[in-house]
């Protein structure tokens, strides 16, 4: 079931027409007057515009001793820009009900902007100021830094953060991916306003900029809005290269002692690159093992049959330079060992036997049918368009996706299950799990 | 990075407070009708994507529990996934998964909801299943007992591992002297441990019926078709003879004492102060009063332009966080909350004094026209933004209709907000932000030797 249709409409390119259905969605590839490429979906039902974009160069650009630089920069972008101080900037956003967000991941800085039609010029103007002339005033910087430090201090006894941080540190020692995006209590105090300016100078540029726009705008207007926000950026970024990496520590279990009633478990291993020909197969197989539905094997075995946890799942996580499969659960101290044993057994069973034909059919059906649920708001559509562009899947990906899923055979699934789940797991546990201790040796 | 399957979600009403009810007058034509068996149906068409959000809202929640059985409304919500005579355990979920749907459920003080988001041509399928489990649930200890462990793990995750949640529970318990809103939705743990199959079935038979529920369907469906499908499915379920009257709970006496409490926990790394005032909800407020509280909460504590943030975080630099919210969605008396986290070196009493000064200034001098207009713009824009999300629309209507509002009240949201005057906001602060109506809670680090030994 996929009534979402695509076509490429020329601003600068040719038009591919696809038969239309009642609620067809058309993706236009446009090029702004200044030469910035973007994908546009016109949506007239609601009088608003939603922009989603990404710059290459997220937290992996941070110096090790200044981890958290990109994150802090993103936190500071709406704290005053150009001639406007922080107070006025926030007032101008709220006076027009403009929503502006910035989010830093390991590889990218993602941004979004949402405004009512009558305020879109103001919204894109404020975004231009934030991206091209952020002030990083000392008072605002110290305030935001203080907030981040308070939050990092809070994390020091939070079992979810403890388990997750240790997992990444152990899996990617010495690599930018091993560092927490937010930085640490030691690194955040070292970051200066100049470091933030340097990050912005190196990352915010037109050459590796991905833009998606959804709303009641035509291609011409969309191009003008995009230029309003982005045309003033430098032509080229200046990023450090990041080395390819594989997760280390597989086979190890690390227990972090913290006094909480419920132990939090993070587990994971080698994943699969987004451009790997077997990615879709792996995605389906992992959905069967621990994907988000109430029918996954982990959910059934850990929660449904045994009542060992409230939640358990795992997912494929991919970056530009590494890929992992990563999961988690949380369970009472005296039952953590049981829950972990069940999870390890299910992973092993999946590696050995693969899924059944029935499971494969059900998973394919879910993954095809559920795609439309990711596309029922402007924000979700815009985010999805950005992800497809970042992953280099092509403007016709939404059309091809069902065919890619259908092409996966049970033999493919079994082969990829073996490949994906045979490599061993790195497990971190934060809490006081009974009968579980750290094991395995550091690499 | 780490995705968690949250099979159920306890709807924290506070989370909705900043946006509250929203629907634009320029929005879709909303249909609202009642079937012969008393089931109400609300349809919110949105044909942009070929999907629908189908929700059933039962007019029963934790506040309707029998004393001593706290948590049973939420436990039953979990057990509703355990099958019927017609559809054995797991079948409904398997079918939802196979058609590419998403499903979940949630429990709050005044309502319990279940929903599926599915391709629009599958609407009938989920309506059939949902109608079947309205009265056909079958439970055995074999499924009930492991699920009780699941809710205890959920308690561990939400409350046991989280000192902030424990503080909020204590404040609620101290705020409500007589009304069941003082009990946590998830339940007190010692009572949760004793909940049985019979408790669940008893609660189910008492409250689950077509004349105690509302169906909200948002998305790619037209009202006539939704109605026909509802007649074919839910329409066949018999009305409950003894349900449907007013929901009468023990009411609060007039509050007379300033209350305060302190929760100490060795894991607290970020101390905090939270205060809750007993205030009217939309359902029991005088005309215009709830809207004034909504505007007041926004001006006082929503976002970077708010009084609390500007004064405490930016100007005086005594806090790293400061906010306020109001929950208009409650059948009985609701809450207005103020929260702050001090900067290192500032004590909680110092922060409380500064917070009191900000509140006193609003009570004394009122709010500016600029603040008022900015807040109205923001709150009214929420109505337009909401139209972009069928699931949010369904949720807002469901919440409103199970807490004493009507479809028309929701539709009139922009007008109701537009009508609020600066005087009304000042008067609301004067009348309701009286410390004798409130409980102030401190969350501090426990540094006693005993606590250190434990950690």
Biggest interface, chains and residue tallies: A-B, 86 and 79 residues
Number of helices of chain B: 17
Mean pLDDT of chain A equals 93
Q: What proportion strand of chain B?
A: 15-25%
Quaternary structure classification: heterodimer
Strand content of chain A: 15-25%
Largest sheet of chain B: 7 strands, mixed
N-to-C series of helices and strands of chain A = EEEHEEHEEHHHHEHEEHHEEHHHHHE
- Low-confidence runs of at least 5 consecutive residues of chain A: 1-23
**For the largest beta sheet of chain A, what order do the strands appear in spatially?**
1-2-8-3-7-6
Q: Using DSSP, what is the number of strands of chain B?
A: 12
Radius of gyration of chain B: 23 Å
**Cα distance spanning the termini of chain A:** 47 Å
Based on helices, strands and strand pairing, what is the structural class of chain B?
alpha+beta
Q: End-to-end distance of chain B, in Å? A: 28 Å
* Low-pLDDT segments of chain B: 1-25
What would the average pLDDT of chain B be, to the nearest integer? 92
Which H/E pattern describes the elements of chain B?
EEEEHHEEHHHHHEHEEHHEEHHHHHHEH
Helical residue percent band of chain B:
40-55%
Q: If strands are numbered along the chain, what order do they take across the biggest sheet of chain B?
A: 1-5-6-4-7-3-2
* Distinct helical segment count of chain A: 14
Question: What attributes characterize this protein structure?
Answer:
heterodimer; A: about 450 residues; alpha+beta; about 20% strand; B: about 450 residues; five-stranded mixed sheet; 12 strands; about 40% helix; globular; disordered N terminus
Question: Overview of this structure, please?
Answer:
- The complex is a heterodimer of chains A (443) and B (455).
- Chain A is an alpha+beta fold and 443 residues long.
- Chain A is built from 14 helices and 13 strands.
- In chain A, the strands form three sheets. In chain A, strands 1-2-8-3-7-6 form a six-stranded mixed sheet, sandwiched between helices. A five-stranded mixed sheet of chain A has the order 9-13-10-12-11, with helices on both faces.
- In chain A, strand 1 and strand 2 form a beta hairpin.
- Chain A is globular.
- Chain B is α+β, with helices and mostly antiparallel strands.
- Chain B has 17 helices and twelve strands.
- In chain B, a hairpin with a 7-residue loop joins strand 10 (319-326) and strand 11.
- At the A-B interface, helix 2, helix 4, helix 5, strand 10 and helix 9 of A face helix 2, strand 6, helix 4, helix 10 and helix 12 of B.
């Amino acid at each position: 079931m996929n009534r979402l249709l695509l076509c490429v409409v020329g601003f600068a390119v040719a038009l591919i027409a696809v038969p239309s259905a009642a609620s067809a969605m058309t993706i236009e590839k446009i090029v702004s007057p200044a030469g910035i490429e973007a994908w546009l979906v016109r949506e007239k039902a609601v009088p608003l515009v939603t922009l989603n974009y990404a710059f290459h160069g997220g937290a992996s650009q941070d110096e090790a001793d200044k981890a958290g630089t990109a994150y802090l920069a993103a936190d500071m972008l709406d704290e005053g820009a150009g001639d406007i101080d922080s107070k006025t900037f926030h007032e101008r956003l709220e006076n027009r009900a403009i929503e502006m967000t910035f989010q830093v991941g390991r590889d990218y800085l993602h941004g979004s902007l949402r405004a009512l039609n009558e305020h879109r010029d103001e919204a894109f103007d404020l975004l231009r100021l934030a991206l091209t002339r952020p002030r990083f005033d000392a008072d605002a910087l110290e305030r935001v830094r203080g907030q981040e430090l308070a939050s990092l201090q809070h994390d020091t006894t939070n079992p979810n953060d403890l388990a997750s941080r240790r997992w990444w540190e152990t899996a990617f020692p010495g690599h930018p991916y091993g560092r927490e995006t937010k930085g640490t209590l030691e690194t955040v105090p070292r970051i200066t306003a100049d470091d933030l300016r340097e990050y912005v100078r190196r990352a915010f540029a037109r050459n590796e900029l991905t833009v998606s726009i959804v709303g009641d705008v035509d291609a011409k207007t969309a191009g003008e809005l995009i230029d309003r926000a982005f045309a003033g950026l430098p032509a080229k970024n200046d990023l450090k290269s990041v080395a390819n990496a594989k997760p280390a520590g597989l086979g190890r279990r690390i227990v972090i002692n913290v006094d909480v009633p419920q132990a939090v478990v993070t587990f994971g291993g080698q994943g699969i690159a987004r451009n790997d020909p077997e990615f879709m197969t792996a995605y389906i197989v992992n959905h069967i093992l621990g994907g988000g539905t109430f029918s996954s094997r982990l959910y059934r075995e850990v929660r449904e049959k045994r009542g060992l946890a409230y939640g358990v799942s795992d997912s494929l996580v991919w970056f530009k330079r590494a890929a992992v499969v990563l999961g988690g659960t949380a369970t009472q101290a005296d039952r953590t060992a049981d829950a972990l044993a069940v999870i390890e057994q299910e992973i092993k069973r999946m590696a050995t036997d693969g899924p059944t034909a029935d499971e494969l059919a059900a998973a394919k059906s879910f993954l095809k049918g559920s795609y439309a649920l990711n596309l029922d708001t402007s924000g979700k559509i815009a985010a999805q368009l950005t992800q497809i562009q970042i992953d280099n899947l092509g403007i016709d990906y939404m059309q091809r996706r069902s065919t890619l899923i259908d092409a996966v055979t049970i033999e493919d699934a079994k082969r990829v299950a073996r490949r994906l789940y045979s490599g061993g797991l790195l497990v971190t546990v934060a809490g006081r799990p009974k009968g579980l201790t750290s094991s395995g040796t550091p690499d | 990075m780490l995705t968690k399957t949250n099979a159920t979600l306890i709807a924290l009403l506070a989370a909705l407070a900043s946006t509250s009810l929203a629907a634009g007058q320029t929005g879709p034509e909303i249909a609202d009708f009642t079937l012969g068996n008393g089931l109400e149906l609300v349809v919110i068409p949105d044909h942009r994507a070929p999907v629908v959000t189908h929700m059933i809202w039962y007019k029963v929640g934790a506040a309707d529990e029998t004393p001593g059985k706290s948590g049973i409304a939420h436990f039953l919500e979990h057990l509703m996934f355990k099958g019927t005579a017609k559809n054995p355990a797991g079948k409904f979920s398997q079918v939802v998964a196979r058609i590419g749907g998403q499903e979940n459920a949630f429990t709050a003080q005044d309502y319990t909801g279940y929903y599926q988001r599915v391709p629009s041509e599958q609407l009938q399928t989920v309506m059939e299943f949902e109608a079947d489990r309205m009265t056909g649930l079958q439970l055995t200890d074999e499924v009930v007992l492991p699920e009780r462990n699941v809710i205890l793990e959920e308690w561990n995750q939400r409350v046991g591992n989280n000192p902030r949640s424990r503080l909020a529970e204590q404040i609620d318990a101290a705020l409500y002297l007589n009304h069941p809103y003082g009990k946590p939705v998830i339940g007190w743990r010692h009572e949760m441990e004793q909940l049985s199959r019979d408790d669940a079935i008893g609660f189910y038979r008492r409250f689950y019926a077509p004349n105690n529920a509302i169906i909200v369907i948002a998305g790619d469906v037209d009202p006539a078709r939704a109605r026909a499908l509802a007649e074919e499915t839910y329409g066949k379920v018999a009305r409950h003879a003894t349900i449907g009257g007013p929901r009468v709970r023990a009411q609060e006496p007039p509050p007379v004492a300033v209350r305060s409490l302190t929760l100490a926990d060795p894991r607290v790394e970020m101390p905090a102060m939270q205060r809750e005032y007993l205030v009217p909800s939309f359902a029991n407020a005088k005309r215009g009063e709830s809207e004034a509280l909504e505007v007041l909460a926004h001006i006082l504590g929503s976002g970077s332009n708010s009084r609390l943030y500007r004064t405490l975080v930016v100007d005086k630099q005594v806090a790293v966080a400061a906010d306020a919210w109001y929950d208009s969605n409650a059948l009985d008396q609701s809450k207005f909350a103020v929260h702050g986290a001090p900067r290192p070196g500032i004590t909680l009493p110092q922060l409380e004094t500064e917070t009191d000064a900000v509140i006193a200034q609003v009570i004394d001098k009122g709010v500016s026209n600029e603040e008022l207009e900015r807040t109205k713009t923001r709150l009214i824009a929420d109505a337009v933004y909401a139209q972009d999300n069928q699931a949010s629309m369904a949720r807002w209507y469901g919440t409103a209709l199970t807490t004493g509002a009507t479809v028309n009240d929701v539709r009139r949201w922009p007008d109701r907000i537009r009508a609020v005057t600066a005087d009304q906001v000042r008067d609301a602060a004067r009348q309701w932000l009286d410390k004798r109506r409130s409980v102030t809670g401190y969350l501090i680090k426990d540094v006693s030797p005993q606590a250190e030994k434990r950690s």
